[in-house]
């Protein structure tokens, strides 16, 4: 039973380079934390992909691959939820300004689905401006009770 | 493992067996180059067999869309077969199942090009 094996772990914090490989590392870590917290394999996959896409967004659109900028990742797990914060040092973004990728006029666009998928794969998605600059994205995924 | 492409001809259809991960970076550019080469060789009926695609991210989904528009703009047809559950889920979420012609059987997919 996943409930019985779930355990609370100390938050893990990482400072990642603004490179695509950082998304691989972040996803791997997210899946491991979800697995150790007792989340199902499908939930691990979805959580890992959400973290991956969020870090890619931070590296590509936030820090724009700037080697002098970092992406800060914090992952915490408890018996009810997984919580991730991804912070970049870019200009920030307004989620309401992102085009809707499933709208008819956008459906054949090559890009623009990353944050959309993140929102589909987690239960809570929040963006706020980080201090002194950048975007701080928080994802929360709850354990399924069914 | 990054993405690998293996092409085979079945009648006038080129079946591309795609395997590995289609993700931002090398994985997505490999697919793009593969489609470009097929179009340059004059192929216009292309079936992507995604049975062995272990992972695809939003960039990979974008590459599938790009492949679709490249082939369509060249007057051809690009179809998909043997989607894994996860790839299928992504196409459902992004509503791209309304765009792509998707099959779960290769023979049926190949025959569909003739109709």
Descriptive terms for the model:
heterodimer, A: alpha+beta, Heat Shock Protein 90, five-stranded antiparallel sheet, 4 helices, globular, disordered N terminus, B: 115 residues, alpha/beta, Transcription Regulator spoIIAA
Describe this structure in words.
The complex is a heterodimer of chains A (146) and B (115). Chain A is α+β, with helices and mostly antiparallel strands. Chain A has four helices and five strands; from the N terminus they run αβααββαββ. Chain A has a single domain (2-142), classed as 2-Layer Sandwich (Heat Shock Protein 90), CATH 3.30.565. In chain A, strand 4 (124-129) and strand 5 form a beta hairpin. By secondary structure, chain B is α/β, with parallel strands linked by helices. Chain B has a single domain, classed as Transcription Regulator spoIIAA. Chain B is 41% helix and 32% strand. Chain B contains four helices and five strands; from the N terminus they run E-E-H-E-H-E-H-E-H. In chain B, helix 2 links the parallel strand 3 and strand 4. The longest helix of chain B has 16 residues, at 58-73. Chain B is globular. Chain B starts with a strand and ends with a helix. The mean pLDDT of chain B is 94. The A-B interface holds A 20, 23, 45, 49, 52-53, 56, 60, 101-102, 107-111, 113-114, 116-117, 120 and B 24-25, 57-59, 61-63, 65-66, 68-69, 86, 90, 93-96, 98-99.
């Amino acid at each position: 039973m996943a409930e019985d094996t779930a355990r609370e772990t100390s938050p893990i914090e990482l400072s990642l380079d603004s490179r695509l490989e950082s998304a691989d590392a972040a996803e791997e870590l997210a899946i491991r934390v979800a697995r150790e917290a007792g989340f199902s394999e499908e939930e691990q996959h979805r959580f890992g992909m959400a973290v991956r896409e969020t870090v890619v967004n931070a590296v590509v659109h936030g820090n724009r691959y700037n080697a002098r900028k970092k992406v800060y990742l914090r992952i915490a797990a408890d018996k009810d939820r997984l919580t991730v914060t991804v912070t970049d040092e870019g200009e920030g973004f307004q989620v309401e300004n992102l085009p809707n990728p499933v709208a008819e006029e956008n459906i054949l666009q090559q890009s623009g689905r990353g944050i959309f998928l993140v929102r589909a794969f987690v239960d809570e998605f929040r963006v706020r401006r980080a201090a002194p600059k950048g975007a701080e994205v928080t994802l929360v995924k709850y354990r399924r009770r069914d | 493992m990054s993405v690998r492409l293996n092409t085979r001809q079945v009648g006038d259809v080129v079946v591309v067996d795609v395997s590995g991960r289609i993700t931002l970076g090398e994985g997505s550019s490999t697919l793009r180059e593969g489609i470009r080469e097929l179009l340059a060789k004059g192929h216009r009926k292309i079936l992507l067999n995604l049975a062995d695609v272990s992972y695809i991210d939003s960039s990979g989904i974008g590459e599938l869309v790009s492949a679709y528009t490249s082939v369509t703009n060249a007057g051809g047809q690009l179809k998909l077969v043997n989607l894994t559950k996860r790839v299928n889920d992504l196409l459902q979420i992004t509503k791209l199942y309304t765009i792509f012609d998707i099959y779960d059987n290769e023979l049926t997919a190949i025959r569909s090009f003739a109709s």
